[in-house]
Amino acid sequence: MKKTLIIHIGWHKTATKVIQLYFANYRKKLKKFDVCYPVIDNRTGFGGIKHSDLLVSIFDELKQGHKRHNVRTFDELFKMSVNEITNSKCRWAILSEEGFSMEYLGIPKLMGRYKEYFDDIKIVAYIRRQDYFLESFHSQVIKQSVTRDTKNLNDFLSHSGIKKRADYALILDWWADVFGKENILIAPFERHTIIPDPLTYFFNLTGLPTKILANYSVEQTQTHISPPREVTEFYRYMNLKGIDFQEKALCEYLLKSGATLTDTKYFGRAERDRILREYGSSNEEVAKKYLNREDGILFEEPIRDYLNCSETWTGLKPEDVLDYAMPIIGMMSFEISRLRHENQKMASLKKRISHFLYKFYRQMTRKA
User: Fold this and answer.
1) Integer Cα distance of 30 and 90 in angstroms
2) For residue 356, how many other CB atoms are within 10 A of its CB?
3) Which residues contact 262 (CB under 8 A, 6 or more apart)?
């Protein structure tokens, strides 16, 4: 029987978690439909829903002699995954980790070892227009606990690794060199394209049995929605200070008042135009090479102009987040006041009970 391996490489901010959660939640039931979503290992904490351990084992493999992660070796995890998939006797298998699309040529090269065991391997990539991808990804690496980045947006955009991540032709060509151009399945992550939802589209794109969806419904939920930029900068400031969500940080904001909330987006029209020009030739190559679009148009949605966005964003100053912090301070103050009141009531009650018991004891001893 022909065995097909689907390697889902992301990118970030394209509903990857929605897809991964579905396969993880129905992992056992999927086997009835000839689909294996292997566990492999779960030392990173994310392996329960995706294949993070496999990814970080690749990082360790690429930096031999400098092991940084508490995971098994790539060779061990590779063999574990092949054994698990083989023992399942399923026709389809899926590996998913958005980090597979990171800017390291060694990732697709090492993943090429799977060609020894599968008749057919498909590489699936959802790609988001670069202006949206970059501002959303910037927010993610700041707020997630595993990275806690401190770069402002300009420094983030100028980082060589980030520039490569947004060069879709570069990354996709690396995968095509290993698995063949005909096995690269991509989809521009736009509303009129990814229909009716990211997961159903994933099934249709890959040829997975859609009867699974008829038996186990797709939950219309959104995860990892990017917060307003004030919120992102609030987290970045805490990262710079090396502190978690503490009253001390809020007090610092409170001392520097005078800010107002601005738009939730970072880029104005001119900046979006500049970014898309920067990646214009790359996007045209992807459209022609992987989607057979002779016009070279990869993303079709018009460029919107978001109000109150500076044309060149340098990052908010800490005091600019006050209006976001204030409601939280208010809630904290309310909660602190409530707890203090409860404690005072409890202390008063304990005092009255103690006083009553003491009087009762004195009366009893007098009678005795």
Assistant:
1) 9
2) 10
3) 229, 230, 308, 309, 316, 320
| Tokens (6 digits) for 99 | 């980090």
Dist CA 15 CA 199 (whole Å): 8
Single-letter amino acid, residue 27: R
Tens digits of residue pLDDT in 278-330: 999 999 999 999 999 999 999 999 998 877 665 444 454 545 555 555 454 44
Over the range 26-64, which residues count as b (16 or more CB within 10 Å of their CB) and which as e?
A: bbeebeebbbbbbebbeebebbebbbbbbbbbbbbbeee
The phi-psi region of residue 344 (left if phi > 0; otherwise alpha if psi is between -120 and 50; otherwise beta) is alpha
CB 150 within 8 Å of CB 236: yes
- Residues present in the chain in total: 368
Global model pTM greater than 0.90? no
Residues 6+ apart with CB under 8 A from 225: none
What is the set of domains in the chain, with CATH numbers? 4-128+164-215 (3.40.50.300), 229-262+317-368 (no CATH)
| CA 70 – CA 213 distance, rounded (Å) | 36
Those residues whose C-beta lies under 8 Å from the C-beta of residue 31, and which sit 6 or more positions away, are 88, 90
pLDDT digits (tens, 9 = 90+) for 88-112: 999 999 999 999 999 999 999 999 9
User: Which amino acid, one-letter code, is at 310?
Assistant: S
